[in-house]
Every structure is written in structure tokens, then in C-alpha cells.
Amino acid sequence: MRKTFIMIFLLITIFASLAIARYDLDGTVTVTQVYVHTAGGDYKLDISEICLNLFSRIGIEVLWKEVCLGAEKYGCVLCPFDKVIVFFKDETGLESAAVVAADKDRFAQEFLNGVPTYLTL
Q1: Calpha distance 51→104 (Å, rounded)
Q2: Which helix (H) or strand (E) covers residue 64, if one does?
Q3: Residue 114, exposed/middle/buried by CB under 10 A (0-12, 13-18, 19+)?
Q4: CA–CA dist 34, 101 (Å, integer)
Q5: What stretch of H or E contains 51?
Q6: What is the per-residue pLDDT across 61-105, written as a single tens digit (0 to 9) for each?
Q7: Mean pLDDT over all residues of the chain?
Q8: First vs last Cα of the chain: how many Å apart?
């Protein structure tokens, strides 16, 4: 009886942890490529598939920092009318692209509000 109870407890624990792990992955995407289109020229960021939650402030801050570092590296000045094109895959493998403004506040708001310019590839 005791072995049966332990076995049932272990199964419940395993299923609960899988459910929690799946819940934690919601919103996490793999950013595959990022292009920035500016008046001074276009450039591609050197990103090798980073996993981010683009629907949270922390993930957006990390991506914005990468965009700013890339602009600094290529000698570009980001203006609000410049565009950032982000290609990403979600956990199911569906590939999409988002075209967002190169302004920190608008960049964050467009991702947090659900980017209207998602393109499913």
C-alpha cells in the first residue's frame, strides 16, 4: 500500500511539474533574425537564436538593448520613424515576423499590445 501511495504521489508530481513548465513557456519565442531599417542605412543584428519572452518587459528590454548595441556598432542613430523587423519562432515552430518602430516606448507598447504587423511565414 505504501509503495502504491509513493508511486501515485510521484506521478502527480511529474504531471504537475510538466504543466508548470509548459505554462512558463507561454510567450517565449526564439528570435532568429533582426533587421533594422534606418535613414542612414540598414543592418542586420548578430543574433544567433536567443530565446526571449517578447510579451514581457524584461524580454523586450533585452531585445531593445541588442538593437541599440547594433546601432552603436554600425554608427546609426535610431529615430522614431525607423523600423525594426524581428523574425521569430514560437514554441510550436510557427515562424513569424514583426515590424515595429525603433523608439523604445513604442517598441515596447507594440509588443505588449500584440503587434498588429505580425506576418506568419
Answers
A1: 20
A2: helix 57-74
A3: exposed
A4: 13
A5: strand 50-53
A6: 888 888 888 888 888 888 888 888 888 887 777 788 888 888 888
A7: 76
A8: 54
Question: Which three three-digit cell numbers place residue 106?
Answer: 513604442
Q: Which three cell numbers stand for residue 45?
A: 543584428
For residue 98, the cross-strand partners are 86
Determine contact, residues 96/90, Cβ cutoff 8 Å.
yes
Grid cell digits, residue 111 = 509588443
The region, left, alpha or beta by phi > 0 then psi within -120 to 50, assigned to residue 16 is alpha
User: Average pLDDT for residues 1-14, to the nearest whole number?
Assistant: 75
95: left (phi over 0), alpha (psi -120 to 50) or beta: beta
What is the per-residue pLDDT for 22? 47
Q: Is the dihedral of CA 85, 77, 53, 111 positive or negative?
A: negative
Amino acid present at 35: Y
Query: How many residues does this entry show for the chain?
Result: 121
The three-state secondary structure class of 53 is strand
pLDDT of 5 > 70? The answer is: yes
Please give the grid coordinates belonging to residue 8.
501515485
